Amino acid sequence: MEIKITKKNIKNIRVSASTEALLVSAPKYMSKKAIMKVVEENEEELLKLVERARSKKYINNIEKGEIYLFGELLKGDTLNYLTDELKVENFYREELKKVLENIFEELREITGLKEKSYTVRKMKSRWGTCYPERGLINLNLNLAKRPIDEIKLVVLHELIHLKHPNHSKDFYSELGRYMGNYKEVQRRLKE
């Protein structure tokens, strides 16, 4: 883990975390050795702090002009016209629609499974849902922030529910057949 130390005119050490590093603000008079001793003594709590920061990895900061699209951070000029949340939402909807068409087409071809329709909407606690009896799949708009392989896993997961409505052994066997590394992708999706 990278540690970035900044000396300031303060009395006590302050620690925060970004997704890439531990950010330590220390009094100007404190030696690097003393700072590192404090960091080492509190290593366990500090690692948890970094993990919490990493778990918030795909959170947009519209005021700063930063949003995520397919796992990549977009900044500055690309976003000049995306000034409010509704515009960002519409942008995501359009971009995700383009990607989903290709993903669905590819996965329909290799699995032989086809939904009657799918929709993209804001969802709070799930990446997708499937209604096998109606052939309907709902996908979370926030998938637009995630890398393509994670989106592909969610679509594949929901398509397989058309054949296996529950999470049975057969369901996971089929998931593994079409995406051998699904466990790794699933782990990243849960972060």
From TrEMBL:
CDD domains, alphabetized: M48_yhfN_like (cd07344)
Residues in YgjP-like metallopeptidase domain copies: 85-191
Pfam short name (any one): YgjP-like
Entry superkingdom: Bacteria
Full protein name: M48 family peptidase
Origin species: Anaerosphaera multitolerans
